[in-house]
């Protein structure tokens, strides 16, 4: 097992509801990466890709629910960033489905790795103070 993304201490936001969700997301991305390297059959790849999509949706709605509750100042740009990610993954999934090959494009893995680490360390970090102020620890 070779991870695409190794969990780092700096990914912890100090919010007990959110941190395990981020860990789980990175775990699914690593599972997808390893399945790709093992030339796993397409049906299984699509199952993992769907697991990632569904869990990301669940995670984004957790964050967005709190943005609403706390009237978070950056809720609009942050939600837009989630929407752009969802759109990009939907496009990737669609082209993968219509493609004959079982190999996922490398740029999907690149995108997943850089998007999630950049998002957690960048945009997600920004809401920590607001969430903490509202008692979410
Ligand atoms: Fe986020």
Structure at a glance:
The chain has a single domain, classed as Hemerythrin-like (Four Helix Bundle (Hemerythrin (Met), subunit A), Up-down Bundle), CATH 1.20.120. The chain has four helices and no strands.
The SS-based structural class is mainly alpha
What is the number of independent domains?
Answer: 1
Bound molecules: fe (ii) ion
The name of the CATH architecture is Up-down Bundle
Task: Walk me through this protein's architecture.
The protein has 137 residues and is mainly α. It has one domain (14-133): Up-down Bundle (Four Helix Bundle (Hemerythrin (Met), subunit A)), CATH 1.20.120. 73% of the residues lie in helices and 0% in strands. The protein is built from four helices and no strands. It has helices at residues 19-37, 42-70, 75-98, 106-133. The chain is elongated, with a radius of gyration of 16 Å. Residues 63, 78, 82, 119, 123-124 line the site of fe (ii) ion.
Q: What topology emerges from the helices and strands here?
A:
Layout: H1 19-37, H2 42-70, H3 75-98, H4 106-133
The structure holds fe (ii) ion.
């Amino acid at each position: 097992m070779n991870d695409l993304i190794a969990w780092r201490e700096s990914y912890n936001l100090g919010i007990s509801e959110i941190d395990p969700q981020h860990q789980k997301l990175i775990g699914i991305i690593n599972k997808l990466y390893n399945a790709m390297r093992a030339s796993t059959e397409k049906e299984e790849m699509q199952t993992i890709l769907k697991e990632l999509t569904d869990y990301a949706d669940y995670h984004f709605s957790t964050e967005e629910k709190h943005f609403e509750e706390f009237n978070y100042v950056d809720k609009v740009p942050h939600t837009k960033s989630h929407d752009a990610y969802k759109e990009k993954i939907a496009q990737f999934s669609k082209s993968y489905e219509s493609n004959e090959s079982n190999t996922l494009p490398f740029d999907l893995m690149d995108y997943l790795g850089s998007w999630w680490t950049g998002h957690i360390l960048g945009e997600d970090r920004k809401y920590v103070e607001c969430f903490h102020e509202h008692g979410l620890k």
